[in-house]
Design brief:
Blueprint (H helix, E strand, L loop, with lengths): L5 E10 L2 E10 L3 E12 L2 E11 L1 E8 L5 E3 L2 E4 L1 E11 L20 E8 L7 E8 L8 E4 L5 E5 L5 E8 L5 E2 L4
Antiparallel strand pairs: 1-2, 2-5, 3-4, 3-8, 5-6, 6-7, 9-10, 10-13, 11-12, 13-14
Pfam families: DUF281 (PF03436)
Protein name: DUF281 domain-containing protein
Organism: Caenorhabditis nigoni
Length: 179
């Protein structure tokens, strides 16, 4: 459902002699929606065409048909496009955890530390961390340890990469399986 903090943007282009409408459904505030749905009118029936979860913006492409109507996904004969926003709420507060603080201070040059947030946009609940070899050589053992030296995870499978997931706590610390 559209409200004052949402907008639909339609950009028309011609590809291979056919009109293509790129339809963007988006929030204009800081809210994240459980689901944003592109809907299409087919006759007097409204169907869901594209669905995107945990976002503030969704983009879909609608392609022209010979009769002047549009097709998208498995739907054809679309005469009008709508955006539906469900479960929208303010984005999570700024993340108290700092991924850079997890980076090792002394790694051999052939090892690279990796970290990325996982989960819905605007949330920093969990992260995937790990390290990998840059020279394609296999490691017999890769260990990830916390600052006190306690082994968090290890791999002994002759690999070039090892990763694990940890969670951000409200106090700005990270937690691994309750440790």
């Amino acid at each position: 459902m559209m409200d004052d903090n949402t907008e639909i943007v339609i950009n028309q282009a011609v590809e291979n002699g056919c009109n293509v409408a790129t339809v963007t459904c988006k929030r204009t505030d800081d809210q994240i929606c459980d689901r944003i749905t592109h809907q299409g009118a087919i006759g007097n029936v409204v169907v869901d065409v594209f669905i995107k979860d945990n976002t503030n913006e969704a983009v879909g492409q609608f392609f022209c048909q010979a009769d002047g109507l549009y097709a998208a996904g498995s739907s054809t004969q679309i005469s009008q496009v709508f955006c539906k926003f469900d479960g929208c709420k303010p984005a999570a507060p700024a993340c108290p955890c700092n991924l850079a603080s997890l980076a090792p201070t002394s790694n051999p040059p052939e090892l690279v530390y990796e970290a990325e947030w996982t989960g819905p946009p605007g949330e920093c609940m969990s992260t995937k961390i790990g390290c990998r070899k840059t020279n394609d050589q296999l490691c017999q053992l890769i260990e990830l340890r916390d600052v006190s030296g306690v082994q968090v995870v290890s791999a002994i499978d002759n690999s070039i990469r090892e990763t694990t997931s940890i969670k951000c706590q409200p106090d700005g610390t990270f937690n691994y399986l309750g440790l």
